[in-house]
Write a structure and sequence with these properties.
By secondary structure, this protein is α+β, with helices and mostly antiparallel strands. It is 20% helix and 33% strand. It has 15 helices and 39 strands. It has an eight-stranded mixed β-sheet, with helices on both faces. A hairpin with a 2-residue loop joins strand 20 and strand 21. The radius of gyration is 25 Å and the shape is globular.
Length: 697
């Protein structure tokens, strides 16, 4: 896609120039699998591995990580299905993984009996492909027919094949989509699917996601399937889906247009027409509970003379809504208190469960509609921990929760819905936490906002600035970063005397939608300021010093680290820039970048380009600056952020004569290595790098 084509619709006078090959000598690295680019990757990998794998600590670290990833006593997290509890499991014998099932009775034991449903390793070997299991969409209520999603090498794009969980075989002459694509399916009935895919020219958005949905009948060619919904190419994505209740009754066909990453328009099909719902652009249907349809809103919602605050849940009576989608009376189910926000939810047969963050501490509330009003109660789970909903059943009231902390291994709780949750599984400790403690502090950002952060450190640590600290953050897309068991980080870093910091930055979701919306687009610099403020606070308090302070982040977090080392290079001694965004002037042309314009702005529009020019790390790498030696890594198969960002950053550093490391995982997707061996290798490389930069003399 050329820059001229990309700017279509903005007007010639409105368009800012996008660098091309004449201005950017490393654009050729944006071709993920060109011979020239892969030769460059091979050379860079050889150089990096030649240094880091040669470190005598490498094998020990890799084996420590692999022992954790392959451990047989990991909690096998499950999902509820009518024919049992399903789990996807990877270990050294099954690096690509097994889809397997057991009974609740067996799962309660220390050694459940598992029945293999689908062996991904065997499938990959038989077909000579690097298959990665990407989940399934199954037909309610029995969930026996499933469309299995498989990715070749780990990229987001998948193929889809119909699978029968009773026979444990792919269905002969069943539904099959062998051309890889973004998008998915919904089951209407045993012989009908709603399909959103790449159907050829004119069916993908500028962000390369589907924007049409077709009704596909069994035994017919998808090419001839009827189109039932269409968005626009300027959308991030668009599609149609089915509104089902816990009894698997379909109440409506719904449609949506993702007009930006954070904004959607919703539609309901009524009397053969698509009716647009009168919802705020940052609100969405949440689910059906006790005969009511719930909505969630990320902004204040003014309707019928009342205002529902941002982050609240709002209900309408379902039958009234079906009769009059925009006229049904709306009532408040829940609104957040100060420093509270929703974090995930689940709907069982008879209740709604909502996870909360209350000043970054987890809680779960259970809601029911009784005697004409919504009532809630707090679920009995441990205090002062990170709490999540792990699994829930549509057909019953069964539900599972996770409870964890930095130093506390994850515990899995179960309830049948009639009694308080009970411990059903506990993960054993992976590192020696004796003598370690967690503290929470606040730093003052550039505009005076107080930014909380956690530090995990040795008790009684000398405040002399000599401790090696690894600091992590994210600060984007309303995603919260929360305390969670450190596992391999504890084993590989804390046990060796390091400390760990987690920063809760604006742009994330720790304190709700306002915390996010205050640091996007023209205000994105606030996220970078928050991260720098935490780093400065760590130094000022004596926890560490710049030569011992390392930072790490992935994806948006990789952009965060890139901005940190280009804006304040003297403040950091090491930087792990993983699967990053990095060239923000061309990001809309790379991978799925155009989908994130709602977060960062559009570099084709002069006013918005000015925001991005202020921080884009690739363009901020300049001569005459002594940057900390970074370790950039990416994945060849990452079709989301794309390896070009990290590649171009490394190439620019080399051009400037700056030291750096670069590694590219040639078989993983956006999350890196697709098997435990590769994950352990990548993690060992990172900790060797940190030790060399921050701990070694």
């Amino acid at each position: 896609m050329t820059s001229a084509a990309s700017a279509e619709g903005h007007g010639e006078a409105q368009t800012a120039p996008i660098p091309g090959p004449d201005e950017d000598p490393f654009i050729w690295l944006e071709e993920a699998r060109s011979d020239e680019a892969l030769a460059w990757v091979e050379a860079e990998n050889a150089r990096t591995l030649g240094v880091l794998e040669a470190d005598p600590r490498f094998e020990t670290l890799k084996n420590e990580a692999l022992a954790i990833y392959d451990s047989e006593d990991r909690i096998p997290f499950v999902s509820f299905r009518p024919d049992g509890l399903y789990n996807f499991w990877q270990d050294k014998e099954n690096p690509k993984g097994l889809l397997r099932r057991t009974t609740l009775e067996s799962y309660r034991t220390d050694n459940p009996e598992w029945e293999t449903v689908l062996d991904i390793d065997a499938l990959a070997a038989a077909e000579g492909r690097e298959w990665v299991y990407k989940g399934s969409s199954c037909l309610p209520p029995d969930l026996d027919l499933c469309m299995i999603a498989l990715s070749d090498g780990g990229e987001d794009a998948t193929i889809l094949r119909e699978f029968d969980t009773r026979t444990k075989q792919f269905v002969a002459d069943g539904f099959k989509l062998e051309a890889k694509s973004q998008g998915g399916v919904s089951w209407l009935d045993r012989d009908t699917l709603l399909v959103g895919r790449d159907f050829g020219e004119g069916t993908l958005t500028d962000s390369e996601y589907p924007f049409t949905t077709r009704l596909w009948k069994r035994g017919t060619d998808i090419v001839n399937a009827e189109e039932i919904f269409r968005g626009e190419s300027s959308d991030v994505s668009a599609g149609a889906y089915l509104l089902r209740d816990s009894d698997d009754v379909i109440h409506a066909r719904m449609g949506y247009r993702g007009v930006s990453f954070h904004e959607r328009e919703y539609f309901v099909e009524k009397d053969g027409e698509w009716v647009k719902l009168d919802l705020p652009a940052k609100a969405n249907p949440y689910g059906i509970v006790d005969g009511h349809l719930l909505f969630s809103t990320d902004v204040d919602w003014e309707v019928d003379g009342q205002t529902f605050p941002a982050d609240s849940l709002v209900a309408v009576e379902l039958e009234e809504w079906k009769s009059d989608p925009n006229g049904a009376e709306k009532t408040l189910v829940w609104a957040p208190a100060e420093r509270q926000t929703k974090r995930g939810g689940a709907i069982t047969a008879n209740a709604l469960y909502v996870g909360l963050l209350d000043n970054v501490v987890g809680k779960v509330l259970k809601f029911n509609f009784a005697d004409g009003e919504w009532v809630s109660e707090q679920v009995a789970l441990p205090d002062n921990a990170t709490v999540g909903i792990a699994a829930s059943s549509d057909e019953s009231d069964q539900i599972m929760f996770t409870v964890t902390g930095f130093l506390e291994p994850t515990t899995l709780y179960y309830s049948d819905g009639t009694s308080d949750p009970e411990v059903i599984k506990t993960s054993p400790p992976r590192f020696d936490a004796a003598g370690m403690e967690v503290e929470q502090h606040e730093a003052t950002s550039a505009d005076g906002t107080r930014i909380p952060y956690f530090i995990v450190k040795p008790e009684g640590m000398a405040m002399d600035g000599e401790t090696a600290v690894l600091m992590s953050g994210y600060g984007g897309f309303q995603v919260p970063r929360l305390p969670g068991y450190l596992g391999s980080t504890g084993k590989m870093w804390l046990e060796r005397g390091g400390a760990y910091v987690l920063a809760n930055l604006r742009g994330g979701g720790e304190f709700g939608p306002g915390w996010h919306q205050s640091a996007i687009r023209e205000n994105k610099q606030r996220t970078w300021d928050d991260f720098i403020a935490v780093a400065e606070d760590l130094v000022a308090r004596g926890y560490t010093s710049p030569e011992h302070l390392g930072i790490q982040g992935g994806s948006q977090g990789g952009l965060l680290v890139g901005t940190a080392i280009t804006q304040r290079p003297e403040l950091f001694g090491a930087a792990i820039v993983q699967i990053p965004l990095f060239d923000m002037v061309r990001y809309h042309l790379i991978g799925r970048g155009a989908s994130w314009i709602g977060e960062y702005g559009d570099p084709r529009i002069p006013e918005q380009r000015a925001w991005i020019d202020g921080y884009s790390p690739y363009q901020k790498l300049v001569e005459g600056v002594d940057y900390p030696t970074p370790f950039l890594w990416a994945s060849t198969a990452d079709d989301r952020t794309h390896p070009a960002h990290a590649r171009k950053g490394a190439a620019r550093l080399k051009q400037l004569g700056q030291p750096y490391y670069y590694f590219e995982d040639t078989v993983g997707g956006h999350s890196g290595g697709v098997d435990n061996e590769q994950r352990a290798k990548i993690q060992a490389l990172q900790y060797i790098y940190l030790m060399q930069q921050l701990m070694d003399e």
